[in-house]
Design a protein that fits this description.
By secondary structure, the protein is an alpha/beta fold. The protein has helices spanning about 5-15, 20-30, 40-50, 50-55, 60-70, 95-100, 115-120, 130-135; strands at about 1-5, 35-40, 75, 105-110, 120-125, 125-130. The chain has a single domain (about 1-135), classed as Rossmann fold, CATH 3.40.50.1010. The mean pLDDT is about 90. It comes from Allochromatium tepidum.
């Protein structure tokens, strides 16, 4: 099973060590599923580590450790173009559906209700669900 974790889920795993995002991250580290990421997402994680509000609660070395761990995931170097007519309300999140298509993922897990991905429900074969739903169904 291949899974994509939205960057907000990955950061949530670092911020709250006892919530669903952390349980999902630990399940991946334990080999329960394959994680699909991309160069774009790894860059976003590095950028996020420099946000002032995150710098105060997350030391850079914790994000660095996560980025290093994610090098062991399936890292997509190039992402496919999204199909014609596929709109993403947040252009900064366009790499997520592209990862779903390019990585042939089974799940895309996101906690971002404003980006419009959860409302879609799926991208091709990829189901889009919340961290709590993923934990209830898979972990």
């Amino acid at each position: 099973m291949c899974v994509i974790l939205d960057t907000n889920v990955l950061l949530g795993a670092l911020i709250s060590p006892h919530g669903p995002p952390d349980a999902i991250y630990r399940a991946w580290r334990a080999g329960r599923f394959e994680l699909v990421t991309s160069v774009a997402q790894l860059d976003e994680l590095r950028r996020a580590s420099r946000y002032p509000k995150l710098k105060t609660i997350l030391p850079a070395h914790r994000i660095g450790t996560m980025v290093n761990n994610m090098q062991r995931a399936i890292v997509l170097e190039r992402l496919p173009h999204l199909p014609d007519g596929f709109d993403t309300p947040d252009p900064d999140d366009a790499f997520l559906p592209a990862m779903a298509i390019g990585g042939e993922a089974d799940y895309l897990v996101t906690g971002d209700r404003r980006a419009g991905l959860l409302q879609r429900g799926n991208i091709g074969r990829t189901r889009i669900i919340t961290p709590a739903s993923f934990c209830a169904e898979v972990i």
